[in-house]
Design goal:
Length: 166
């Protein structure tokens, strides 16, 4: 079940994202750090009603942020659609013990359905250039790679921006 997250669940959410960070690092993918994603970011996400959790057998195993706010870093990207009715996906994570079972697909389908139901024209996101698995995941879903952004506090490598028209 996918539902809005609660402030009281932030610690459980951080356990999921920290497990993901360690799993990625074991594959030499340094996409997330010990300071990102952070408790403060997730608290803001909950306050904005943008953070959703995926529960499996009463356990939080995945998270996704669905936002209408465009990050400053995205402004130079030549998006496929005007910057008016778009949603932005951030901090998608599925606990490594549950990866490869379709849960990330469920979270993305939820986000894309949310966009359609709420009359958004596209879904936008970025993913780490060194994370080839994530790139294939989004490209298989029909997302188009449009340009790069940088988050120097996370990595010297770029993050590829993607968009899907819904």
């Amino acid at each position: 079940m996918i539902r809005p997250a609660k402030l009281s669940e932030i610690e459980d959410i951080l356990l999921v994202t920290d497990a993901c960070r360690k799993h990625m690092e074991s594959k030499n993918i340094y996409q997330w750090t010990t300071s990102y994603p952070s408790k403060s970011k997730f608290m803001i996400d909950v306050e904005r009603n943008e953070l959703y959790v995926l529960e499996h057998e009463n356990q939080i195993i995945g998270v996704i942020v669905i936002s209408t706010l465009m990050d400053e870093e995205y402004k130079h990207i030549s998006w496929l659609t005007p910057n008016l009715k778009n949603i932005y996906i951030h901090r998608l994570a599925v606990h490594p013990s549950f990866q490869g079972k379709g849960f990330a697909q469920q979270l993305m389908t939820f986000a894309e359905d949310y966009a359609i139901k709420n009359n958004f024209v596209s879904v936008r996101l970025d993913t780490f250039s060194q994370n080839k698995r994530n790139q294939k995941f989004y490209e298989t879903r029909g997302y188009q790679k449009l340009g790069d952004v940088y988050f120097p506090q996370q990595s010297k490598h770029p993050f590829h921006c993607y968009e899907l028209i819904v």
